[in-house]
Specification:
single chain; six-stranded mixed β-sheet; 8 helices; globular
Amino acid sequence: MSRQRLRDLGISIGQFEPGPWNAITDIAGVRVGHFTLIRDEPTVIRTGVTAVMPRSEETIWAANAFAGIHSFNGYGEMTGMAWIDEAGILDSPILITNTHSVGVVRDAVAEFAILKGAPQRFHLPVVAETWDGWLSDIGSFAITKEHAWAAMEAARTGPVAEGNVGGGTGMIAHEFKGGIGTASRRVPIGDATYTVGALVQANYGSRRLLKCGGIPVGEVIGPDVVPSPWPVPRDQGSIIVVLATDAPLIPLQCKRLARRATTGLAWVGGYGANSSGDIFIAFATGNVVPPSQPGGPTAPVSVAMLPSESMSPLFLAAAECTEEAILNALCMAATMTGWQGRTAHALPLERLQQIMTKARAALR
């Protein structure tokens, strides 16, 4: 069976309906691009860069967004966190890569912004990572600034490539091949309908804890069915979650939204193991924040804010699309052999369908 997204397999989870693309790009203006690097000489590389652009190409540098960050477990890196915690403003793209490439990608974003004429006085880009050193020679430092630029230049709205692409190229999740996944939810609140989207780079988790819609599929598809990539089972790795919404949220509300990715992660089977870097960022495009620059506006800026009583549906949507984004990453990722002949096998989709069909029939 070819690789397919969860819903294409006939498996729907959650209460809210997805947007047209069932992707983070269902939020107007949000774009995603990848650069994927796969080669076998002079050393084996399975890595890349994924870029999430919070605004359209025309407004990316002029229309900042409110944002918030939650570090569920800090065994990882996301640059730019201190400024977002301080000011609550996202004024750059969000890039995700491998652990050893954070520095070069961070510098590449700053240079890219200057080349594009960004008006900010300084640049503190947001770049996050997970470790792909099992399938890729991470010590070769294969990623360059040109690769990061290519990911940003490739950013588009519409469907998002998932699985073995971009920063997710060499990642492993729940002892299956992991990588990039995305999903969205449409949320009616009063007379308005808002969208929440998630994009994940999944590289964490044990097989025995993996669940799909609450069904313990990892217990059924054990290492005797599909070999684990690890010689000895282990529960380590990391996940980065990017949440976006078009709802009018202020920074504190964005931080609250970012926390809810924890729930979606838990539903799939992640719990924040000691060596798992689980860092989440949420941004909201419902307000336009002018960039910080010399001679910029000094008058008060009007912003809109949903009342706290309206946040619960957004929290549920954030959890739901985080859960489905992780499962989409697993469903779309294909078996990959990499450095030193190591192999990460794909989640078997026919077996997943069988388990879910049987489990849901038993619940009727």
